[in-house]
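Exercise: predict the fold of this chain.
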Amino acid sequence: MTKWKKFWHYRYLYFRYGLVNGLRNIRRKIWNKRIKLAWYRLFVRKDEFHPSLNLDTEAMVVMNDDELRAYRADIMRRRTIAHNRT
């Protein structure tokens, strides 16, 4: 493969996969990790099977280790409270 073809091939791969994945990560960081989780933390649900007490894998993809550990502890705390209410 010539240098020119390699250049265009890498550009194609970036725009096909890298750019789309980057935009998805931006959406995950803003919507899933910040807004949605803040909304779910406003109050603890009465039902332990409420969808807000499920793990949000989209948000977990963009979290670092400390945030992930705190998120799991918070989910378990809210699940325990909801379980004790029922």
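Check your answer against the key: Residues 3-40 form the longest helix (38 residues).
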